[in-house]
Specification:
By secondary structure, this protein is α/β, with parallel strands linked by helices. Helices cover 43% and strands 14% of the residues. It contains 10 helices and 8 strands. The chain has helices at 18-31, 40-46, 51-62, 86-102, 114-123, 136-146, 168-177, 191-200, 214-219, 231-236; strands at 5-8, 15-16, 109-110, 127-135, 153-157, 184-188, 204-207, 225-226. Helix 6 links the parallel strand 4 and strand 5. It is globular and about 50 Å long.
């Protein structure tokens, strides 16, 4: 066995959550008096660094920021340069988090082949975890409802745990799993996931079916890119 543990990102890696994310974001932005006609393609670029950053990015676009530069927000670029008001971000987030948690599994589902792949890994003795910048309440709900019994640990964004790309979530998962980092691999679909793996000292497998796509991953120097879930079995075992 190549690895004893596989740590998965959630959005864009094991679950296609874009429909519910888009509907929830537009609903809450409408409720709070903001632009609320964002498309799924728009929302793909907003998420990856948690709801707080996604709201910052959406507000920046509403205020005229170029969509091509959004990844900088959440990675050092101050959204205030686009006129984003942090108090407004927090106001929207307090409404978005419970709304999304209650409506996160209406259109969401696993990518084809993912449940079978996770089943094969677990049958081979690989421990599995999911770590996500999604609010923890939604992570726990989706893991339990869509992947019952498939993960040894599930971790979402919590106040006491720094969000990815900080290594806190992966470190916590490894402690719970009882696996050394040299025996684990990280699987994700975005630049944040590559950064998380690097910060955690883990190899990274990038998947092309998620929120960013193969060309984006190549541009950001992904070391391993796979196009089909079944390829994970070969890479991990």
């Amino acid at each position: 066995m190549k690895y004893r543990a596989a740590i998965f990102d959630m959005d864009g890696t094991i679950l296609n959550t874009i429909g519910d994310l888009t509907d929830s974001l537009n609903h809450v932005f409408a409720q709070t008096g903001h632009r609320h006609d964002f498309t799924e393609e728009d929302v793909r670029t907003f998420f990856g660094s948690g709801a707080h950053v996604a709201i910052q990015r959406a507000l920046a676009v509403e205020l005229g920021a170029p969509a091509s530069g959004l990844e900088g927000i959440g990675a050092g670029t101050d959204p205030a340069i686009y006129g984003v008001d942090e108090k407004e971000v927090k106001r929207i987030e307090t409404i978005f988090t419970p709304w999304y948690a209650a409506h996160c599994n209406l259109k969401t589902g696993p990518y084809a082949g993912i449940p079978e792949v996770i089943g094969r890994l677990r049958a081979a003795g690989v421990k599995t975890a999911v770590v996500s910048n999604k609010p923890d309440i939604a992570v726990q709900k989706l893991a339990e409802e869509i992947f019952p019994g498939s993960f040894d640990v599930s971790i979402g964004e919590l106040p006491e745990v720094r969000r990815k790309p900080a290594p806190d979530m992966t470190d916590k998962a490894l402690r719970i799993l009882g696996v050394n980092r040299e025996d684990a691999v990280y699987i994700g679909d975005s630049e944040v996931d590559m950064q998380t793996a690097e910060a955690s000292g883990l190899p990274c497998i990038s998947v092309s079916w998620g929120f960013r796509g193969r060309q984006f991953l190549k541009k950001h120097h992904a070391s391993i890119i796979i196009d089909r879930p079944e390829e994970l079995v070969r890479e991990i075992l």
